[in-house]
What we know:
The structure is a homodimer. The first copy, chain A, is α/β, with parallel strands linked by helices. The first copy, chain A, has helices at 11-23, 63-67, 83-88, 90-111, 149-166, 193-203, 223-235, 256-267, 269-272, 281-288, 297-301, 310-321; strands spanning 2-6, 25-26, 29-30, 33-38, 51-55, 74-77, 120-126, 171-177, 179-180, 208-210, 217-221, 246-248, 252-255, 275-277. Chain A folds into 2 domains: 2-178 and 221-248, Rossmann fold (3-Layer(aba) Sandwich), CATH 3.40.50.720; 193-219 and 251-321, UDP-galactose 4-epimerase, domain 1, CATH 3.90.25. The first copy, chain A, contains 12 helices and 14 strands. In chain A, the strands form 4 sheets. The first copy, chain A, has a 7-stranded parallel beta sheet with strand order 5-4-1-6-7-8-12, sandwiched between helices. Chain A has a 3-stranded mixed beta sheet with strand order 9-11-13. The model of chain A has no long low-confidence stretch (mean pLDDT 95). The interface between A and B is medium-sized, with 22 and 21 residues.
Amino acid sequence: MRILVLGAAGMVGRKLVAALLAAGQVGGRAITALTLADVVEPGAPGGSIPHTLIAADLSAPGTAESLIAERPDLIFHLAAIVSGEAEADFEKGYRINLDGTRLLLEAIRLASGSAPYCPRLVFTSSIAVFGEPLPAVIGDQQEHTPLTSYGTQKAICELLLADYTRRGFVDGIGIRLPTIAVRPGKPNKAASGFFSGIIREPLAGLEAVLPVPDSVRHWFASPRAAVGFLLHAAGMDSSLLGHQRNLSMPGLAVTVGEEIAALQRVAGAKAVALIQRVPDPVVAEIVAGWPKAFAAERARALGFRGDASFDEIIQIHIADELGGHIGG
Amino acid sequence: MRILVLGAAGMVGRKLVAALLAAGQVGGRAITALTLADVVEPGAPGGSIPHTLIAADLSAPGTAESLIAERPDLIFHLAAIVSGEAEADFEKGYRINLDGTRLLLEAIRLASGSAPYCPRLVFTSSIAVFGEPLPAVIGDQQEHTPLTSYGTQKAICELLLADYTRRGFVDGIGIRLPTIAVRPGKPNKAASGFFSGIIREPLAGLEAVLPVPDSVRHWFASPRAAVGFLLHAAGMDSSLLGHQRNLSMPGLAVTVGEEIAALQRVAGAKAVALIQRVPDPVVAEIVAGWPKAFAAERARALGFRGDASFDEIIQIHIADELGGHIGG
């Protein structure tokens, strides 16, 4: 099967490509060609599967048509402007996150004019489609109440994905990723950055700032679990979804205090001592509007599997990013 | 205040314009100018308020900018391709119902580049944003699960309206209208047509076909109640809405059997005898996926008032459409 990955240069995209190459197949079908696209040209993957690397702006005219010209059987659409940038640049957020996705869906729809074409499309949505007021545990029929333009754009794409699928133009599955932890790389300005920072930095022997109380609860998945969700969505029997094509993934509901306790168990008191509590009311207020936990019953029943514990999430970071060794 | 009505030539639009002219004000502010637009030029309203009549396609480039050039303080956006046509013509439905609304929102946003501009925008959404599986009574936090492209387009517009409002570009209120009954005019091919037809036709001395069992329950408002919802949304304190800018309106949950009993009370057995039961499994299946009843608690708490009974809905039709006389 031919696979197209949009957003292949991002953190999740790179890990997905590595997993695809390692597996060599999806749902029992061998991968015969891989097209990797992003706004910057993705790095060449290893392995023996023929691949094409493309730098392209999905929102530019003709890009979507050209990306699907070879009729990939499976498309992963991970490309997006992140939450903070979509809020700071209204037009860019709508152009990339909404128009880009719609152009992709339209290109797929119109491609079937010449010969039947209905690829599996795995789309990464976000828990940002939900915002306060919310129940303590969000069920599978929760109304979309985004409080950001990013969340609005993801919610709209979920609706488009479901309608294009209902009409038979595409075989779409949208998965609402939990917040990824431990996110590798440098600290960034994202309001959610500290959830990873208070683990990643101490494991590297660096200080980390914690701007919210230990009682703050949030919803997490490791990068490895996120890739697992994508692969499961790619290979599953999509007829089981009916008309509800978008799913909240099974993350872990963990408080900041529980994160710190897990860090203590895995890396000891010395690591925990590197966390500096510097309350920031602005960050605390932003985070207060975010979802805290999901039931994710549909996703679990459909075979999606998340992380077992936050200890495991930390161990995955140590194994996949630190070569198995705690630094410092 | 200046008012723009988009979709002014439609059934609800015409009744809204008549109500605006009769009131002469909205929320205590006198109406100084009225612009009426639709795909066909709306008929000239009576009264002494200066008016402009425009035939325009909202989805054509430049139309939205031109329609808001005089910076109306209040905009009613009722223009839409109906459900059946949006399902039959995929591209036209998305062009008019989604792109048209987005072009309007963008024109409003960009108009504030020269001087501050944030009009009240009253948008008619639909209960078609919901589809089975649904609870017997739909609450105010129900997930959007449209099963038509029309419902998808309305759900997307609700999300856009809320985000543009949150960003301060517009002061938007979306109201989900119940199915309008008794819809005046000729029978049409809409799957919902019989809900009105079994009342309207017998009141005119004509036979009507009933394709579903008496037990089918649905959610109704009279044209007069629908206009009342629009006027209330136009004049209310929108700060009470918070970030949840879209509301299910308080309709009446009535079975077909209850409709017929009301017809019997209002117009007698002779009228009821004109209803021909001709079961149609296709129509019955379509209707089975529709919402049956709403709690509409938020709307009621915010002062929206629906019809008191289906008897009243029939009486409104006799008063407003039949000159107070039952025909036949």
